[in-house]
Design a protein that fits this description.
By secondary structure, the chain is an alpha+beta fold. It has two domains: 2-54 and 102-140 and 211-308 and 457-498, Alkaline Phosphatase, subunit A, CATH 3.40.720.10; 311-444, no CATH class. 30% of the residues lie in helices and 19% in strands. Strand 18 (385-392) and strand 19 (395-401) form a beta hairpin. The radius of gyration is 22 Å and the shape is globular.
């Protein structure tokens, strides 16, 4: 089976950017047009594990970009905060293995002994959490460890991860090494609003060096190389380009046409959406050329939606991304320069850490019931907060709402899904207080996700096999349902003790 995850892929992009290969896969497969993500936080580091575990964040080991280590599993001290996207592969494995629940790779190994399960992605954490310790090969980028350019500086990245095949790592400075020089920024480091989260060479974009293409092209090429050489039963390719452009410029509103071959073209969404669509087509064509298409189930989806921050409450300044997104002290570093909009919350003196993008999630020092109420009151005063919740065991308690701040559409979506979505985070390691925000609102970047808004939650989701007709069921499938549906299609029956939160849907039926 092959899972293609296009990071921050909104369903509207298929027509908006004429993504012909994605359109064909969805038309010819079992496409779920009413699919939604179905959990919070709607983040890369969360959703990739939801997809491959079939569990909600409350059950899978962490729930957000911030993790409170209540059991000192990572050895930095009880209740230490960690930024999950900054954790090493072995640390993420510790969190995943602690649950004892099987992942996609475990099921595939049982059903197809001796085969390999592979994950590939330009984002290290997305690659690692898609696999877990049961994955055989994980291929992602190293740090800037290689001096392959004329300057002699160590500014290039190469293949790294787990059991990376030698045909990818060799020769030194070969095809799978790319220029990630921060000076190669395609104008994003000095241009608002992209400068909050700018490009670093060809890490997330292909670039123009035909011998060392990066970004989504690098992911596809590495995946196809292993399709040809490995006896694989499962592969997940995660493509970062659309997400990077979405954060820099706003996502769906970033639809201008730029001069061909220009820096602006390379850095904007229209080009990157077409490029990832081309990679989807190349991967599917390689499956056919290898004769593997008739025995492969293909899933096309994303890890979250996204929205433009027309209501932006961070600081629009160069390099501000991480400082907008996180406030507090963590094992991965301290970020204590909060945006002014967070002042009412920070001034309570009780914030251990807070993560804010298209929702605000806060971990407290004092978690007593009176302290929770005070924090919720402070959070309700923040700009564009429409509802606040406090952690109460295995669920969140609604602390207050502001219907007067909601449009009719926002109010309808919130009533239908608000409580459902925040409850998926309810665990001791999750946030103590949650603030849901209006549509098109962010505290982090020009385009964002993380919250419960319809645009953050609506996702494309299609399953394709060569022997099933194209249908479009009305079922509102969620990310947590992907693994059970895959297992059902492959004839694999999970045990009740496996603890799956999702449910299977038969493919090829309305």
């Amino acid at each position: 089976m092959l899972i293609l995850v296009v990071d921050q892929f909104r369903p509207e992009y298929v027509e908006k950017f004429d993504m012909a290969n994605a359109r064909a896969l969805m038309r010819e497969g079992t496409d779920f047009p009413r699919a939604y993500l179905g959990h919070m936080a709607s983040e890369t580091v969360v959703s990739h594990q939801v997809i491959t575990s079939g569990q909600f964040p409350r059950d899978m080991g962490w729930a957000d970009e911030v993790y409170r280590d209540t059991g000192n599993l990572l050895g930095e001290g009880k209740d230490t905060l960690h930024i999950t996207s900054g954790l090493a592969r072995t640390q993420l494995d510790t969190l995943m293995d602690t649950t004892g629940a099987p992942k996609l790779g475990d099921y595939l190994h049982r059903a197809f002994p001796g085969t390999k399960v592979i994950t590939v992605g330009a984002k290290t954490y997305a690659t690692h959490v898609s696999g877990g310790s049961g994955t055989d090969i994980q291929v992602t980028f190293s740090g800037r460890d290689f001096a392959c350019g004329k300057s002699g500086a160590r500014s290039w990245r190469g293949p790294a991860g787990k059991a990376v095949p030698a045909y990818l790592t060799a020769p030194a400075c070969g095809r799978f090494h790319v220029d990630s020089d921060q000076a190669l920024d395609y104008g994003t480091r000095t241009t608002a609003p992209a400068w909050m989260y700018p490009l670093d060479g060809n890490h997330y974009v292909p670039g123009r060096d035909r011998a060392h293409l990066g970004g989504d092209t690098w992911v596809a090429d590495a995946g196809m190389a292993m399709m040809e050489r490995e006896d694989w039963s499962g592969m997940l390719l995660t493509f970062p380009g659309v997400d990077k452009a979405g954060h820099m410029w706003g996502g769906i509103t970033d639809d201008a046409v730029h001069p061909p071959g220009s820096d602006a073209e390379m850095a904007h969404l229209r080009y990157l959406a077409k490029n990832v669509d081309n990679q989807i087509g190349r991967v599917l064509n390689r499956l056919r050329a290898l004769g593997q298409d008739k025995e492969t189930l293909v899933v096309l989806t994303t890890d979250h939606g996204g929205m433009p921050a027309t209501r932006f409450h961070g600081v629009d300044r160069a390099g501000r991304g991480d400082y907008n997104w996180f406030y507090g002290r963590s094992a991965q570093g301290d970020y204590l320069d909060a945006a002014p909009a967070l002042t009412p919350l920070v001034d309570t003196g009780n914030v251990a850490g807070s993560y804010q993008d298209s929702a605000v999630r806060t971990w407290l020092k004092d978690t007593s019931r009176p302290a929770l109420r005070r924090a919720a009151t402070a959070m309700a005063a923040l700009p564009d907060v429409i509802a606040t919740y406090t952690l109460d065991g295995d669920r969140y308690r609604l602390a207050g709402s502001a219907p007067e701040r909601m449009s009719r559409g926002e109010r309808s979506w919130w009533r239908q899904h608000g409580q459902e979505l925040v409850n998926t985070m309810a665990a001791p390691y999750g946030p103590d207080v949650v603030g849901l925000l209006k549509d098109d609102t962010s505290y982090g970047a020009a385009g964002d996700h993380g919250g419960a808004q319809r645009a953050a939650q609506r996702v494309p989701l299609a399953f394709w096999t060569a022997d099933r007709p194209g249908v479009a069921p009305g079922t509102a499938l969620r990310a947590v349902d992907i693994l059970p549906t895959v297992l059902g299609a492959l004839g694999i029956t999970p045990a009740e003790r496996d603890g799956l939160d999702g449910r299977a849907h038969p493919l090829g039926r309305e």
